[in-house]
Amino acid sequence: MLKKHEIEKALNNWKAQPVAGKLIRKFPKQVPILAKEIWKSAIHCMDGVAWIYFIFAICHRLPTNLQKHKILNPGRINCNICQSGHVEDEEHLFLCPALAASHDNVRKAMDSVYRKWDLPYSNVGIPRGLHIKKVWAKALIESVTQEHKFHPTLKLTESKIRQLVDDYWKANPDNRHKSLQDLRKKVLYCIKRYDCRCASRHTCQLRNCWSTPHGLLEILQRHLHLEVEGMSDSLHHSNLFSTWISGYKSDKSFGALFDIFTQSLSGKNSYINPPFNNLSTNENAISRIIRKIANDIKTDEPTRTVLLIPIFEGMDGHRYETQARKAKFLEIASFPAESFCFVAPEAFSIGDEHTPGPFKGKVGLYLAANKSSLKIDPIDWNTLTEDIKRWSQTTCRKSVIICKSTLEKFSERIQLQYHPRVPSYPCHTQYYNSSPIYHYYDFSIKPSNEFEHLKKYIRDENHLRLLNRMNQHDRFAAVLGILPNQLIRMITEVKPDDKDAILKDLRLTSFWQGYRVWRQRMNLYREYWRDKVPTCLKGKPEVLDKCVNPFHYLTLVNPTKAPSLGTCNCSAQMKVKKNKRKLPEVTGNMKIDNWLVKVRVVEEKKSIKIRNKTAVTDGTDELDYNDLSCLDHKHLPASTIPLDSLKDKHLRIRTSGQMVLEEQDRKKRLKLLS
């Protein structure tokens, strides 16, 4: 009786909590049943952490970045293991691209349970939205691939139309007014914007739209882990990047960010291919973007940008290269004159890889990165340069020239062995699609009314109504093992004999797969804070963290050897071991008082030597005035000032108590000598 009363009171107190009691108020019968099953399963698997995870998760108290830092440190609520820049909450936990493999395991495991018990409609249907996008793409292909009366010289390829449909669908996920008519109007506006009637050389808007070859972009994106494509547009941006920036406001309908000069690149990995026009003017797009990149990398957040720069003949033609080198950008490689082939501006109407001919001048490839970027997102420089060289041998007229000085700088440093942050749209990842009918647990599919989509495959009106409401279930409750009431009702009706076994299998499968996602997240964060994060970001700033050199956190292979010009040796200085304090040995049955007297004698002898000799200082006592801009201390002017004439903090001021102790020690020493 007392136990029952105690349980009821605890449940009432739990339900009274505004946040922690959400799930117990919504599912008062399922949560106790689920708790008992998980308790027994955790004991059987000998995994007590799973039970602790369930306790925190059922109360919405998982220690995500939002939960830990939303009050005291709001600047640290974003995810640290991916480049999406999203707030790390319970929803992002099951959408984070760094955990994509674990998410696929959830979908595969749940799909196998549906097929194992042969639940109705588990083998039919296609994902919602896929059919609509195919219909829209087919309709646009029939109209836009042909020459249009308003712009007879331009049309669109089938691959570009499919890309525009995907971009429009992703950019307007919650827009109820998106339609084929609206999409066709926006596509025609984009084509009309490039209404080219040039005879030979482009003088229209297309003169600024020479694109980078897809093969080179794929190499750079894979090895440098790029996330953002800057200075592009809806008809020329690459599908390798999830985020892209355009100079046209109309491209927002296709998911673009507007105006790169108003967007912050701090904390992002970007690729920029600026337009090469306006060479004779004092200020053009290339000069402005170099200055912007140089300012944006001055941050503690990991930031890097890959920049493609033209190099023309004459003194004026080298000013972009000179500006990039003055900004301390690292040169990756340079393509000789008449060797690099850009993709033609009108490739969206001819072919995705149409290259009319090589660029007459040289082309330089530069990397702007700060020290946090090379630390958190490590680069395998040898593999990167080898892949670029192999690509140039098959695509360019002449082989690329790899920068030897940058290669030497990376070869002097120890290669970091951990993985970088994952881009939010990795081009090499293939995602497993969840069941088209049962996806109440899938965070990638937002809850919505799917009645029109489901009725194509479900004839039973009762099942249609139940399954439509089932897929609007709370996603986080589902991955904890709380099933939709509509699913329980349908299983009771269809398979009454196996009801308990099916429900238990579904509950435990979804819980354990969700727990494995959290465990993978904890492993990645443990690696992040143990190996990746610099000391200054852990709340323990180091003196030498004032160095701004990008190689600051990379340890030298040989600390005794001087590094290359342009890099710092702060890592070698930080490796210097301090001399340990040597104390007198304890011999026999020496009393502690006699041992302390000997220690004091040794310390006084050292202090007398220090006071008597003239000290040579290197000006490093005052850290606020010390120059730590990647220079060795030996280059600083030495001062021959006695320590006694320095500031008051170097003087030894004795109190009355210390004088009494010294007098007592002096008398003890006299007794020992006598």
Tell me what you see in this structure.
The chain is mostly helical and 674 residues long. The protein has helices at 2-15, 22-26, 30-45, 48-58, 65-69, 90-93, 100-116, 130-144, 158-171, 180-193, 214-224, 285-296, 319-326, 347-350, 371-376, 381-395, 404-411, 451-454, 461-470, 475-479, 485-494, 499-532, 570-574, 592-612, 656-673; strands at residues 228-232, 243-246, 257-258, 269-272, 304-311, 330-335, 362-369, 401-402. The protein has an eight-stranded mixed sheet with strand order 3-2-1-4-5-7-6-8, with helices on both faces. β4, α12 (285-296) and β5 (304-311) form a beta-alpha-beta unit.
Largest sheet: 8 strands, mixed
Number of strands: 8
The name of the CATH topology of the largest domain is Rossmann fold
* DSSP strand content: 5-15%
Instruction: Quickly count the helices.
Output: 25
Distance between the termini: 84 Å
Stretches where pLDDT is under 50 for at least 5 consecutive residues are 613-652
- The averaged pLDDT comes out at 82
CATH architecture descriptor text of the largest domain:
3-Layer(aba) Sandwich
Helix percent band: 40-55%
What is the count of structural domains? 3
In short:
This protein has 25 helices and eight strands.
Task: Furnish the topology, listing elements before pairings.
Layout: H1 2-15, H2 22-26, H3 30-45, H4 48-58, H5 65-69, H6 90-93, H7 100-116, H8 130-144, H9 158-171, H10 180-193, H11 214-224, E1 228-232, E2 243-246, E3 257-258, E4 269-272, H12 285-296, E5 304-311, H13 319-326, E6 330-335, H14 347-350, E7 362-369, H15 371-376, H16 381-395, E8 401-402, H17 404-411, H18 451-454, H19 461-470, H20 475-479, H21 485-494, H22 499-532, H23 570-574, H24 592-612, H25 656-673
Parallel strand pairs: 1-2, 1-4, 2-3, 4-5
Antiparallel strand pairs: 5-7, 6-7, 6-8
Helix pairs in contact: 3-4, 3-22, 7-22, 8-9, 11-16, 19-21
